[in-house]
Amino acid sequence: MQKFFRCLLIVLLSALSLKAADIKSIGVPYIQNFSKATYASGNQNWSISKDKNGVMYFGNTEGLLNYDGKYWEQYRMPNGQIVRSVAADGNGRIYTGCFGDFGYWSYQKNKLIYTSLTHLIPKAEKLSDEIWKIHIFGKKVVFQSFKAIYSLENGKISVLKNKGNFLFSYKIGERFFVEDKGLYELKNGKLEFIAGSDLICKTGVLSILPFKGNSLLIGTGKNGLFIYDGKSFSAFNTLANSFLSAFQLNNGVKILGKYYAYGTILNGIIIIDENGNIIQRINKSSGLQNNTVLSLYVDNEQNLWAGLDNGIDRIELNSPLYFYLDKTGIFGTVYSSVIFNNKIYLGTNQGLFYSDWRNGEQFSNLNFKLIPNSQGQVWELTVIDNQLLCGHNNGTFNVVGDKIETLTNYSGGWTIKKLNSNPNLLIQGTYTGLLLFNKNTAGKWQFYKKIANFNIPSRYVEQDHKGEIWVSHAYKGLYKLKLSADYSAVISNKYYDEKSGLPTNYNLNLFNLENQIVFASDKGFYTYDNISDKFSKYNVLNKALGSFAASNKIINAGAKKYWFINHGKTALANFSEAGKISIDSNRFSVLDGRMVQYYENISKISESIYLISVDDGFVFYNANQKIDLANAKILQKVLIRRIEDITDKYAIISENGNDGNAIEIKNSRNNVRISFSLPYFRAAKIKFQYYLEGYSKDWSDWSSATQKDFTNLSSGTYTFKVRAKIDDSLVSDTTTFEFTVLRPWYLSNLAIFFYFVIFVSALIMGKKIYETKLKKDSQKITDKLQAEQEEVLKLEAEANERQIHKLQTEKLQAELASKNRELANSAMTLVYKNELLQKLSDELLKLKDENGKKLGDDQLRKIQKVINDGMTDERDWHLFENSFNEAHESFFKKLKAQHPDLVPNDLKLCAYLRMNMSSKEMSSLLNITLRGIEIRRYRLRKKLNVPHDKNLTEFLMEL
Q: Is the pTM of this model over 0.85?
């Protein structure tokens, strides 16, 4: 709110500072036309208003229009009605009235939405006609139709009617007037008739404006203007009165504090001063699109807006440029213009035209006529020594009033000027070379001679300080000429091209700038060095001129000022301050492209007035008349307009930035276009600079672009900043717009909450699973430990068993060894016993009785029988067999089981062989011979099926 009041204060101060500004009566100010094709809506525009942000609103045939200096938007009424009235308050509401409805538009959820107020009307007072006027009195809003006045205050509507029907209503300060076959003023909620007003209301009151003192200036439809001093009415008898009566006044506004603009039905707009003098007439012939003016509005930038029967026009009041345009094409394209001896002359492609000129008169009084015998292309009009010379396609003429006098028939007089070295001579560049002019005895310029030895077309001609002549032509190049002492002939001619340092041979122009010849090219200005005979860039000048360094023409504006023309663009440079060049091109931007290229012409009329030739007429430039905004702030900030989704198809996200409401953009729609504008409507160069915080690294370059696309924005919050610059000097405050690109659905808050729930559930489940697993693992570990313990115990038991078994085995082996020893001992004992018995048997045979005789056979048989019984006693064998079985694990049982055909003697032999006895020992035990042993061994191999390569003893030991 504070910012709004601060802006309002600036507006008021600006208005006060401009109050004394004058509107010139020469020509018309700059008019900007907005056709219905431009704003893309209906042709008729019934009312105009401007909101707190500087946006213009228009009540149009097809609805409500708004314009922000760049973009037009149309909003239709709910039932498609014509918007007859519009008024913006200071709180963001745009009130509109139409047939059967009135209400307001406001931004809701970032879009301009209409809210009807007719439901607040008392049921007995039904609205059934058009709302023609809307007036805002602070918090009170008044809607006026032909039948009633509806007052909205504190959310309630009251209705006021009169005996008859109302025509129109008017707000003058805090006073409210309405017409009903006379004028009424609203006082204390009642309409009070103004005495005598019925006499002036016969054709309808269509305008009431504040006038001198506390009086009112009242405009009627066909009876002209009247002054009401608070007591009586008097006719305002002026030329304006007759004009307004004839062309039917329709509306009016007060402008610049002391002028009055009236729109008419039949002839456009007139502007008058407080004395009733017509200052301006602006109609279709002078640039207005249509002569029927349905509405007028003056804004705080000195713009007069006209809502027309077909289109919208903006008239730039107090402009330093005033136009006269030939909309009918009477005199064609203007190449040169000049004011001389109370006449204005226009040199065109059709001939030389003139009109009487009285300084300060309106252009509408000009009546251009073709001077006889001047038909054809006029190249130049120049006043030299109070004589007007005309360079023409057919020759050169002296212009005297409305006649021309032929000076020469040499065709194509492009340029003519005095020689620096001899001011009594004029040198002229033509199609076929150079001409000289001198004065006759009467002091009149006359043709003298053609300069010999040079026939090149000479578009530009200059003389340097050495007296040498420089000539250039767009296609013939650049020449330096040295003339003879009497100037009659060229005695030296040098041609220059790229070899001399020039950037090209074409489009080289030359001009005298501050008594120095400079050479213009598309690459910048060059200077010539006499010593080196070379050209070099004029860097100091080029740097100071900026983009105008590539100017194709320079025109002397006087007082160390020069016009620079850069291929259709115009600037005025000031060289008056030493070491500094100031250049102003902004105020001339409306002239861009409107002058005849390469033949631009600007002539100085007075110290501050210049006449500028344009394609279809001429323009006056008043250097003393300008709006100085250099020390003031820009009244409006940059507006964020449309925010659009451009991902795959265009969709509007917002119509006015965020307007305090958060803007969230889906992650899948993260390609946006941001449009912005500055509601500054006067002709100026407006550039913008933007910065997207969170995306860009730095501010962009200054540019005239009013929208920017941002693609593939990652999720997060962004702040878009933008500011404007007017005429490369005034910089606005920064406007910010914040928006958020949402996270993708899988990273949204709900998704994250879902993930969190899943995570917590997973943690709980994981905990339970872990605990279960831990329990199982613990059980497994316990079981494993137990199993390991059991295994250890088992292994220990097995080890113990093995140890026991080992010990037992060792014991058994020891017992076996012992038994084997016993067995061996037993066997050896048997062997020894048998051997002993055998020896005894042998000795018995040798034994003799005491008589030396052998013993008797009976005795020997008895003894031998005892010996034989001892040797064959089976008890020894059975004892051996038992011992053998104990030592060799039932050897005989196994042997008998496998070989049941073995006889006892075979078993004995097997036992002895297993014991690894020798054949001698076995023969002793078996009481047979060694041969018998071999035989038995053989037979035993057969019975046991012992392989022939297997040792029998080994076989039995392995059994």
A: no
